[in-house]
């Protein structure tokens, strides 16, 4: 009996290293922390929560955490400094990318492994429906009549929203008051409360309030009107150029820390690509007026670098006095 027990024990010990090694290489072996560097309820938060149940079907279970502040820098710094094991990932955006492009954050694009683009979003100028200004021309007139006084809310400073807020003032030929927040949902709340005159936001983070008749989009920062809002003019329609220094795009994309193991990177890219291309998410994107494409891995890295270069060029023109802070 003792001899049989010894043999069984020896076999178990011999098998243990292989089992341990197998467990070590299995990914993901536990839930993955997904950092949204903005407040809950914003467009990026809503998008990843829509992807979450689809990702679970592909073996990726997320624990979503909102870590807002400093135009996305605080949350993205947490991702950049996490262990490169695939268990902490997050949502990069053009807002934080604009800070990187201007050297206004210690972050760099080289600190991240780029996984997949989730969305590209148009931006809109919105006012409370109860406001006296019912059109873009009305709002431009308000700014002209009240230089240095009209407020525009943006989710953060020195990002694309801030750039377009400044372009709105440029169209009016006057200065304005930029009011930065830690996320789009905060801008929406103060718009509804009448604490700011307008806001530069995405359709996806304002759609509910628009449909309820609480907020009114009056101008689109794009060259073409949106399918969901065919009656809302672009700035170009009204004769205002919001791209005088070159085109820029608002986008959100999944990142992990740099130096991610190849097998982990492949697993994440495969799962996120499948979820983003899933008909259920595409239908969600259509209902929330944002665009979905198939951009992952190295192709996404090239796109991020290209957008960063464009944002840096535009920001240098829009915020010339702030570039050497």
Keywords:
alpha/beta; 5-stranded mixed β-sheet; 10 strands; 42% helix
How would you describe the overall organization of this protein?
By secondary structure, this protein is of the alpha/beta class. The protein contains eleven helices and ten strands. The chain has helices at 2-25, 43-56, 73-80, 94-102, 136-145, 160-172, 184-192, 207-211, 262-276, 279-287, 297-318; strands at 32-36, 62-66, 88-93, 112-121, 124-128, 151-154, 177-180, 198-201, 215-220, 250-257. A five-stranded mixed beta sheet has the order 2-1-3-10-4, sandwiched between helices. β6, α6 and β7 (177-180) form a beta-alpha-beta unit. α6 (160-172) runs parallel beside α11 (297-318). The chain is globular and about 65 Å long. The protein starts with a helix and ends in a 7-residue tail after the last helix.
Give a topology summary.
Elements: H1 2-25, E1 32-36, H2 43-56, E2 62-66, H3 73-80, E3 88-93, H4 94-102, E4 112-121, E5 124-128, H5 136-145, E6 151-154, H6 160-172, E7 177-180, H7 184-192, E8 198-201, H8 207-211, E9 215-220, E10 250-257, H9 262-276, H10 279-287, H11 297-318
Parallel strand pairs: 1-2, 1-3, 6-7, 6-8
Antiparallel strand pairs: 3-10, 4-10, 5-8, 5-9
Helix pairs in contact: 2-10, 4-11, 5-6, 6-11
């Amino acid at each position: 009996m003792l001899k049989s027990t010894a043999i069984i024990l020896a076999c178990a010990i011999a098998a243990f290293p292989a089992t341990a090694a197998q467990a070590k290489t299995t990914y993901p072996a536990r839930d993955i922390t997904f950092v949204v560097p903005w407040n809950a309820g914003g467009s990026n938060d809503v998008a990843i929560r829509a992807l979450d149940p689809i990702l679970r079907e592909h073996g990726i279970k997320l624990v979503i955490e909102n870590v807002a502040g400093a135009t996305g820098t605080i949350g993205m710094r947490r991702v950049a400094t996490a262990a490169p094991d695939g268990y902490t990932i997050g949502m990069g955006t053009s807002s934080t990318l604009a800070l990187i492009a201007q050297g206004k954050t210690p972050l760099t694009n080289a600190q991240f492994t780029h996984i997949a683009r989730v969305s590209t979003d148009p931006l809109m100028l919105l006012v409370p429906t109860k406001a006296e200004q019912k059109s873009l021309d009305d709002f431009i007139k308000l700014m002209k009549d009240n230089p240095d006084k009209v407020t525009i809310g943006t989710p953060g400073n020195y990002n694309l929203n801030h750039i377009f807020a400044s372009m709105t003032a440029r169209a009016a030929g006057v200065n304005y008051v930029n009011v930065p927040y830690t996320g789009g949902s905060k801008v929406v709340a103060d718009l509804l409360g009448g604490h700011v005159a307008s806001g530069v936001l995405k359709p996806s983070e304002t759609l509910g309030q628009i449909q309820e008749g609480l907020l009114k989009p009056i101008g689109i920062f794009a060259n073409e009107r949106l399918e969901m809002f065919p009656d809302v003019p672009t700035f170009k329609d009204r004769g205002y150029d919001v791209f005088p220094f070159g085109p820029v795009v608002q986008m959100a994309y999944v990142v992990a820390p740099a130096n991610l193991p190849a097998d982990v990177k492949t697993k994440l890219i495969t799962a996120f690509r499948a979820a983003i291309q899933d008909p259920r998410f595409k239908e969600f994107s259509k209902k929330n007026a944002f665009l979905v494409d198939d951009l992952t891995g190295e192709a996404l890295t090239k796109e991020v670098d290209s957008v960063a270069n464009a944002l840096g060029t535009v920001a240098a023109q829009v915020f010339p006095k702030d570039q050497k802070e």
